[in-house]
Amino acid sequence: MNLDRNSALIQVEEVYKRFPLPEGKGEFTVLSNISLEVRAGEVVALLGRSGSGKSTLLRIMAGLIPPSQGQVLSNGKPLRGANPDVAMVFQSFALLPWLTVQENVELGLQARGIPKKERRQRALKAIDLVGLDGFESAYPKELSGGMKQRVGFARAFVLEPKVLFMDEPFSALDVLTAENLRGEIDDLWNAGSFPSQSILIVTHNIEEAVFLADRVVILGSNPGRIRGEVKIDLPRPHDRLDPRFKSLVDYIYTIMTNPEIEVTTEMAVQPPVKEQVSSPYAYPLPYARVGGISGLLELIVEQPEGQVDIAELAERLRLSVDDLLPILDAAVLLGFAEVLQGEVHLTEIGRDFATTTILRSKDLFRQQLLERVPVFKSILQTLEEKRSHSMRGEFFLDLWDEHFPHAEAERQFATAIDWGRYAELFEYDALEERLYLAETTPEPVGVGQTPRE
Q: b/e string for 418-441 if b means 16 or more Cβ within 10 A?
């Protein structure tokens, strides 16, 4: 692939994206001050958690939605409307069921006014490239999930874009199919036969990012912002058995589980610095159920010395970053665990929580909530000040609405209800949609005390 690797195909310059909050309550910033380049001859992975705006950024770069501020340059020119230099592969296959494989692949060419004969030749070449020759006349209902996604790739390949965008293209597939297709895409790239000059992939799978990419751009959340990037300094193809591969995966897990640390090229981890938040409702609760937190701690406590490598844990549980990290975040927030150098370690109180009785675990959970998560003190204070010791749920939901889009505010409220009920801090009547102060709120217990009857 003879390319000028210093040539910037796409440049994002100080881009912001804001959406209005309901009822004129202001704006919610999805992306903040994003600047990055995609250069010829490289694979770039955008890696971030839920709320980091990965897909929003991809769509802005594709020209599908405009930025609120800043600009995107494609091939050196300001982007106005859809980006003609990119093609996109989505998580969902998005095939038209009434068209054959070949007809689906030809759609983009037809929209560009390419003559029928040329369309057919280019479509057949792309279908052959993804290993679907023989299925040209098949309809989507006849194909497996992996085959449907191959059609998605062929539909993008046939356009011969300068940059191929992939938005979590393997996440809807089963594990084995995803691994097979991921490997074939990597083989095409390494062989120099890939039909685009660059790839930009959005993913929440850390191993996938290290396996495919030359550099990994890591986004922070709420709002989405670039925390830094990690260069994958491995020879291609990237060998998962190389100790450096594991070191990179562990380092990125450490970054992802410590949102405040600086991303450095030396892979050195700085201690997190907690950001001061004015309102307890502005600090997001990790979206994790108590059962998930408890189950994770019980699994870790069975490991030697009560610690486990996060990458190995994710592989063992077959959990994506978006599924595992909120549970880890919750365990860390509550003081039950610490994350150091890519490993999660149980604290003394976390080990106690994972091995004690149900009654004591509730006491410990209540204690940690009140000591470490200010929003629960605020909720309790509100309920205690009311003569009826109750308050409509909408009141608290409105407080979260001040800081988050409504769907996220509802998730925050649901998490608070789950945690508060388990801790027996308050009760919630779903029919009346009201919170009630629990009849008794026992004092927290210290480590080593016996549980109450």
A: bbbebbbbbbbeeeeebbbbbeeb
pLDDT of 307 over the 60 cut: yes
Nearest to 163 by CA among 92, 56, 61: 61
Task: Report yes or no: 99 and 136 within 8 Å, Cβ to Cβ.
Answer: no
Domain extents in the chain: 8-257, 373-437
- Across the beta sheet with 27-39, the strand order is 27-39, 8-20, 69-74, 77-78
Residue 193, number of CB atoms within 10 A of its CB = 10
Nearest to 342 by CA among 318, 314, 317, 319: 314
Question: Which of these, 284, 257, 258, lies nearest to 271 by C-alpha position?
Answer: 258
Cα–Cα distance measured from residue 351 to residue 373, given in angstroms and rounded to the nearest whole number: 20
Helix (H) or strand (E) holding 44: strand 43-48
Span 167-203, pLDDT tens digits: 888 887 777 788 888 888 999 899 888 889 999 999 8
Q: At 276, phi and psi to the nearest 5?
A: -75, 130
According to CATH, the topology of domain 8-257 is: Rossmann fold (3.40.50)
Q: Which two tokens stand for residue 139?
A: 């309809």
Q: Rounded CA gap, 344 and 337, in Å?
A: 7
What count of residues does the chain have?
453
Q: Decide if 262 contacts 228 (C-beta within 8 A).
A: yes
pTM comes to: 0.72
Cβ neighbours for 107, distance < 8 A, ≥ 6 positions apart: 96, 99, 155
